[in-house]
Amino acid sequence: MSVANIIDAEALVRHFDDGITHFNAPVSEVWLREAGGTVEVWIITKPVELDRERLVAHAAAQVQDAFPDRYLDFMVLNPSVLTEELDLHEMLPAGIERVMLPDA
Length: 104
What we know:
Layout: H1 9-23, E1 27-35, E2 38-45, H2 50-66, E3 72-77, E4 97-99
Parallel strand pairs: 2-3
Antiparallel strand pairs: 1-2, 1-4
Helix pairs in contact: 1-2
């Protein structure tokens, strides 16, 4: 099953972009995939301290509120918390699709 069969990805991105703007969340990329009826939202942040990363959670909560009948699972990848240099894209699961944010 694809993400499009579960949720309007464009609406999800609009709500998430509104939250990013409202909370000034340090989001760099957003990726989506369907996994067993759940929409996984993988977020790659800009390199930031944990207190700034928490703003991403506020933006994610706004998205969850907009889709109360859908199960969304948010994963945040912050390059600042890694102890070694890794390509965060290698941590993304198979079958994932990048969604472009309006300002990207």
